[in-house]
Amino acid sequence: MIKVNELKDDAIVKIPVSKGYYMMVKALAYNLVDKMIKSEKSEEYLKDVGNKPYAELDEDQRSLHTVTLLVAEIEAQSKLQELVDIKEVLEPGDEGYVAPTVD
């Protein structure tokens, strides 16, 4: 038998998150969606991530669900703590739009 660390049932862990880490998590979410699209998963399959109970999702959907919740919580906390800058961003079709790249 071995011993492992596990969070207590009522634990709420507070973790400071840098912008760099936040951007990595967002990139991970994008990567998961991109792979699902490239593997020809249906639009309904992607929508199920937000519509079906967690227990009914497959492994890929659960991964996307978890990362999406993490990004949403980081964004919610950053707004509450007034750590957000509002920026205007060009969209596809706007004059001067350049597609983003991941460096």
Write a concise synopsis of the structure shown.
This protein has 103 residues and is mostly helical. The protein is 50% helix and 0% strand.
Q: How does this model look, in words?
A:
4% of the residues are buried. This protein has helices spanning 19-38, 43-51, 59-80. It is extended and about 60 Å long. Helix 1 (19-38) packs antiparallel against helix 3 and helix 2 crosses helix 3. The chain is mainly α and 103 residues long. The protein has a domain at 19-80.
Task: Pick out its properties.
single chain, mainly alpha, 103 residues
Distance between the termini: 44 Å
- What is the SS-derived class? mainly alpha
Helicity, in percent? 40-55%
Give the topology string: H per helix, E per strand: HHH
> If you average the pLDDT, what whole number results?
93
Which consecutive residue ranges, at least 5 long each, have pLDDT under 50? none
| Radius of gyration computed on alpha carbons | 17 Å
| DSSP strand count | 0
Looking at the structure, what is the overall shape? extended
Q: Number of helical runs?
A: 3
Beta-strand share of residues = under 5%
The largest sheet is:
none
